[in-house]
Amino acid sequence: MFSENNNESGKCALTNALNGCNTRKKSTDESDGSLPRADSALSNDSTTSSQRSTNRVSPAVSPKATQQNAGSSAGGGGGFNMRTGSDQPQQQRGSRKDGTPYSRNNSSVNREKDAKRKALTPKQIEELAGGLRKLDLAKENSLIEQFITNDFDGEECGAAVGQMLVQFSIEENRQAGKAVARIAAQLLDSGAAQSFHQGTITALVHYFDCRDRLRIDHFRVWIAFLNFVSDLYSNVGYIYEGELVNLVFRIFDYLLKAPVLETLKIEELESLIGCLLSGGYDLERQCPEQLAVLKDRIRDAFVEVQEPWARKMILLLMELGASGWKLPAEANEYYFQQTSS
């Protein structure tokens, strides 16, 4: 389990885990969309990501490459089929029952987003700048200052900042996740909205690609990842073809199926419960078909799981939908106080 002591050996172990996962994935899929660890604060390279980003942005994090990679990886190489629990190539993604496609052309979606986006006001720019500086990103501050100077515009900075904020929230300062999620929602009205979002998705997908190793060897980082995805979705919602929501559903599917189901930890189930409490209403409104499949998965997990405490918490997942995605006070006492005793 990953120690709370953020020492150099712990950083190296985590970096090696992420790099090792990335190497194995690249051997089977050259377009993996993973976060280049050379641009991470945990890289063994002494050159910081902010220094490189100030002068140039690597092709691996360029907006075009980031968008292509995130699009392919967020669905596991195309699209994730919740009904079968497997990844499918992009060309196999079908249509809904009413005949409408699950996804639209990226360019048309992006044009719609650009048209709907409201320009940041001077007051909002000032508030965003203050929020980012308050994070105290240390060696990444030069990148942040460049982004602020450009009034949060510029594709290169946007992609780099998106990836850096994800890494910071998950690995460096787990208490900052909620604040970063709010900042991310505000940045979706900036000129760098699209590249920032794609940089964020690319980083998150890389952590998910390394889920098995993180869960076993770096559990606190894994939980920080789960909580950050939940916080981010509750602030951002369904945008850019649902790349983030697709990741949310994949996380649920991963945790609620064997073999992971039988080794679930209470922190993981608490994160799933928190995700539905904060985002269940939006999931029901934006993607009812996928949510219906998720409800089936939760029901199956309730039947299959052996641990009584886990069954009790999965039952709560089942009941949240019927309660309007709210947790009654008596449920809090029943589920959590008895579970912890």
Describe this structure in words.
Residues 41-57, 83-93 have a biased composition (Polar residues). One of its GO terms (molecular function) is RNA binding. Its main location: cytoplasm. It is found in: Cytoplasm. The structure is a single chain. This protein has helices at residues 8-28, 49-55, 63-74, 106-116, 122-134, 141-149, 155-172, 177-187, 193-209, 211-217, 219-236, 243-255, 266-286, 288-304, 308-322, 329-340, and strands spanning 78-81, 86-89. The two termini are 23 Å apart. It has a two-stranded antiparallel sheet. Strand 1 (78-81) and strand 2 form a beta hairpin. The protein contains 16 helices and two strands. Residues 1-6 and 26-115 have low confidence and may be disordered. It has two domains: 1-84 and 104-254, no CATH class; 256-341, Serine Threonine Protein Phosphatase 5, Tetratricopeptide repeat (Alpha Horseshoe). By secondary structure, it is mostly helical.
SSE topology sketch:
Elements: H1 8-28, H2 49-55, H3 63-74, E1 78-81, E2 86-89, H4 106-116, H5 122-134, H6 141-149, H7 155-172, H8 177-187, H9 193-209, H10 211-217, H11 219-236, H12 243-255, H13 266-286, H14 288-304, H15 308-322, H16 329-340
Antiparallel strand pairs: 1-2
* Helix-strand category: mainly alpha
Portion of residues in helices? 55-70%
Overall geometric form: globular
* Overall number of domains: 2
Note poorly predicted spans: 1-6, 26-115
Report the average pLDDT across residues. 74
Alpha plus pi helix count: 16
Cross-sheet strand order for the largest sheet: 1-2
Calculate the terminal CA-CA distance, rounded to whole Å: 23 Å
